[in-house]
Design goal:
The structure is a single chain. The protein folds into 2 domains: 118 residues, no CATH class; 96 residues, no CATH class. The protein has 5 helices and 9 strands; from the N terminus they run ααββααβββββββα. The strands form 2 sheets. It has a 6-stranded antiparallel sheet with strand order 1-2-3-4-5-8, with no helix packed on it. A 3-stranded antiparallel sheet has the order 6-7-9, covered by helices on one side.
């Protein structure tokens, strides 16, 4: 049964987050991609190939921006996939929003990488070295996100309900709330539907970031809390919400 056929929690006015802004933004960036491809085609027909790589790089970047917006949305697919493991029951993030974000940072680095290459000094001349270093550093800054993902420091998240508590792996952090520190769970809405697993103020809350400050693409809550952001989850928002509420309630009763 899909979310549209089930009763939403009263805190959720809707599970739809794709509004007019996303449609307008998609139309704008689609036009930007068209302009880049049009310029590319015109340059190729005239035999001027020097700037083609830049226009193609910008076309790729413009295409990835709405891709993230469309992929980061609550699901109403009627699916709930709970993985049973030795550690506990696991629900996972969808991989698409994370991949779209990495594609965006990679494509942002391409024009600067091309600029670094084109600025390489000729033999026995150093007049282009400054540009190569500058553009190369900027490209590496953007590409450090995919590199961190390849190293496993950034990755799609998950929430594990263990016998000891709830463990969350965000894109760039890890946290753990023991059951005795959990006060309960509830639905919430802050422009998007979420489910909150709330800890006491004096909870024994373990948390850490897996990367340095610059690479933190998501943030820990300011208080003991596990937020299930349904925009990032792979499962049906209502079904997953009911599962979380039930898992927390049964453990609290137990």
């Amino acid at each position: 049964m899909r979310s549209s056929e089930r009763k939403l929690p009263p805190e959720w006015p809707t599970i739809r987050t794709r509004g007019l802004r996303l449609y307008a933004g998609t139309a704008f960036f689609a036009f930007a991609v068209f302009v880049c491809l049009f310029v590319t085609a015109g340059a190729a027909m005239s035999g001027d190939y020097s700037g083609i790589k830049y226009t193609l790089a910008f076309a790729l970047f413009f295409a990835t921006i709405p891709l993230y917006g469309w992929s980061a949305a609550p699901k109403s697919n009627g699916s709930l996939r709970v993985e049973d493991s030795d550690e506990g029951s696991i629900v996972r993030d969808a991989w698409q929003p994370f991949a779209a974000l990495l594609a965006m940072t990679f494509s942002m680095g391409l024009p600067f990488a091309f600029g670094a290459y084109d600025s390489l000094p000729h033999p026995y001349r150093w007049d282009g070295l400054g540009g190569t270093v500058f553009f190369g550093v900027v490209a590496l800054v953007f590409w450090s996100y995919p590199i961190a993902a390849a190293a496993g420091r950034l990755r799609p998240g998950s929430i594990t309900f263990t016998s000891d508590g709830v463990r969350q792996r965000g894109w760039s952090y890890e946290s753990f709330l023991p059951w005795e520190s959990i006060a309960g769970s509830t639905a919430a809405y802050n422009g998007y539907p979420s489910t909150l697993i709330i800890g006491y103020a004096n909870a024994q809350w373990e948390r850490t970031y897996t990367v340095g400050r610059f690479w933190r693409i998501d943030r820990l809550p300011p208080v003991p809390l596990v937020e299930v952001d349904h925009r990032r989850m792979r499962d049906d928002a209502v079904l997953l919400h009911e599962f979380v509420i039930r898992a927390v309630g049964e453990t609290s009763v137990g």
